[in-house]
Amino acid sequence: MSERVTPEDRRRRRRPTKQGTVLSEDLIVETALRLIARHGAAALTVRRLGAALGADPSSLYRYFRDTDDLLLAVADELIGRTQAGWAPTGEWRSDLREIGLRIHASYQAHPQLAMLATHRTTGRGNEMRAVEAILGVLRTAGFPDAEAVTLYHAFIDHALGMAALEAASMALPPAARDAELRVWRGQYTELSPDTHPNIAATAQLLTAEMRHSAYPFSLELLLDAMEARLPAAARSYDNSIDG
């Protein structure tokens, strides 16, 4: 999908597709999200999208400049879904935990998109609302602005980085995933305590642990570190509320 800009008056025109459906940005984004889930990055072509929509591929240029513009719109849609139904409770740690777990769950549900989009900045409405919400939680908790910005950066990169890492594993063919599990169950459990005493002592625990996501636990570690950095006055206020 090459760079092409269509005049705004043409972008706003609505014509039914061959299937009788009226095109819109929302419909195109939803269709692209579905195709990415099935086929990965290869789905982001005007030919495939046009075929799925029953529309002339060139009509997509009325809504998106190119495939990258479309990808950012799809990524922003997923960010919006992580926020649906969420509202701050006023308890900063619970609020950040909920946001982090929502991000993780959303990208686990769309691993192909996670690999394409977790490293991108969309500059769109849903992303901006998410940034605003997280900064609001941190500033309301009592973190100074400079600290809140740094903690936002660490929090969101941790969530997206873990999502991308796990998405890459989830997107492997089933045979490859099974082969990796066999490595943990086989080669690691067979190591000698003479050469690998620490692995041998924990092999069964290690094998069980590596089957699960580390994100919930690592998120708690991050929240612990954040709490330790709260100004003393804010910590005292939080403790008085909890008491």
> What's the CATH class of the largest domain, please?
Mainly Alpha
CATH topology of the largest domain: Tetracycline Repressor, domain 2
Biggest sheet character = none
Question: What structural class do helix, strand and pairing data support?
Answer: mainly alpha
Mean residue pLDDT: 87
Keywords summarizing the entry:
Tetracycline Repressor, domain 2; flat; 243 residues; 68% helix; Arc Repressor Mutant, subunit A; disordered N terminus
Please provide a written account of the structure:
Helix content is 68%, strand content 0%. The chain has 12 helices and no strands. The chain is mainly α and 243 residues long. It has 2 domains: 8-65, Arc Repressor Mutant, subunit A, CATH 1.10.10; 76-173 and 183-238, Tetracycline Repressor, domain 2 (Orthogonal Bundle), CATH 1.10.357.10.
